[in-house]
Amino acid sequence: MKDLIDLVLVFSRLSFVAFGGGIGILPEMERAVVGGHGWVTHQQFIDAFALSQVTPGPGMLMVVMIGYRAAGLPGALVAGVSMFAPTGALTWLVADRWSQLGDRPVMTLIRGTLSPVALGLLSAGCYTLFRLGVGSVTAAILATAAFAAVAGLKMSPALAVVAGAIVGMAFLR
Amino acid sequence: MSGTGEVDKLCRMASVTVPKQPTLFALFKAFLIIGVTSFGGGRAAYFQDALVTRRKWITDEEFLEAVAVSQVLPGPNIGNLSAYLGQRLRGWRGAVIAMLCLTVPGGLAIVAMAWLYFNGMPASITGPVGKGVAAAAAGLAAAAVVRLRGGTGGAGGWAVAGLTFVLFGPLGWPILLVLAVCLPPSFAVAWSRHK
User: Fold this and answer.
1) ipTM of this model?
2) Which of B32, B36, B39, B102 is most worth mutating to test chain A (most A CB atoms within 10 A of its CB)?
3) Which of B151, B167, B185 is at the close of a domain?
4) Digit-coded pLDDT (tens) for A18-69
5) Same structural domain for residues B121 and B161?
6) Do B111 and A156 touch (CB under 8 A)?
7) Of A55, A87, A164, the CB nearest to B135
8) pLDDT 10s digits, A65-114
9) Same domain, yes or no, for B132 and B195?
10) Domain count across chain B
11) In angstroms, rounded to a whole number, what is the distance separating the alpha carbons of residues A87 and B76?
């Protein structure tokens, strides 16, 4: 029971300091779950991150694996809910208030302000993905092919990534 | 809902496009597909493809606004993005459905992985697959950015997007600092275009 309460406290606190995405809180998370509570070892923490990259959905679902190790299935559920629900509810609240303002001129102005910045943030995310994920010639060819297939040929992203997984198994050992 | 037809007629008369509002089931289906198939980083690309390019439920600008808000607020980006888009499309029910569709399939998959892993499966077994997925995901993310390029609205917007990119990407500034520096010039650009 104590572990479940600790899982709630650790992951809901981490979710509220995750500005700009989950990657930024990984060092802080490791301190809490490896050093602080000893739920997983350093290697298990790294492996949890790696496994979250080959399962669908948000990468932050890695906390489900840590919760599972700490307190079994209830721990997995509690960790996932603590990471996603509170900030999701906050976002819902903001979106709700926001949409009540409708299409007033001021909203057009705000949208016009946010759009270029959001595009910059997305491009920066892209940069990170290339830096971390494209380390060889084969990987670069694969990334370019995925880009061309989705941007040019309108292939579905899921198909492109499954093709990537297959190429990876064959060539990226 | 006797007024819906009237509203439609009025909108047509005023030649305003009625935003398409999906049914809850259509929303469930769209988000569940994303939840089951979105591998690798850069998951916003899946939302862009499914909701903007294919279904046209929202515009480029609305999507970029959703991305900005879900990054400005704390929490996992993709969880926030689902809550925001779900709310925008179908209110609180839409938000709940979107978040569940995005997290439950992956959560179950992670539990299965965790069980295998803690019973002796080496994580390195997924190594080559992970590398392939990571490389393809980088390409997908680039495709989403290219598709959304219309959202900048002119040279000033491009300059702001470029500045944001450099500060948040290569220079690795914290997000709040990036926003503090980039939002004022972006507002000035939007303001000058607005008038």
Assistant:
1) 0.85
2) B39
3) B151
4) 876 677 778 788 889 998 999 999 888 888 888 887 888 888 999 999 999 9
5) no
6) no
7) A164
8) 999 999 999 999 999 999 999 999 999 999 998 888 777 777 778 878 88
9) no
10) 2
11) 8
